Amino acid sequence: MRLDKFLKVSRLIKRRTVAKEISDQGRITINGLQAKASSDVKVGDELTIRFGQKLVKVKIDELKDTTKKEDADNMYTVLEENRIETTE
Known about the structure:
By secondary structure, this protein is of the alpha+beta class.
């Protein structure tokens, strides 16, 4: 499954176009490697996503083409969630 589609279906990111923009900006890695929106993801992969001042690391548990809002949380497990400290 494409990265941008997984992010939308799992509701980590609400819109597929936003998921594409974030990945094209280099803010997402898959297993430590820079990812593009078209990158393939599979069960067991670890994604690191930078949302502004927050870094979220998740492990993919399940892939589905569609899902209900209440089932979306079952698609991944949050491993880490950290704030990024800015030095000014």
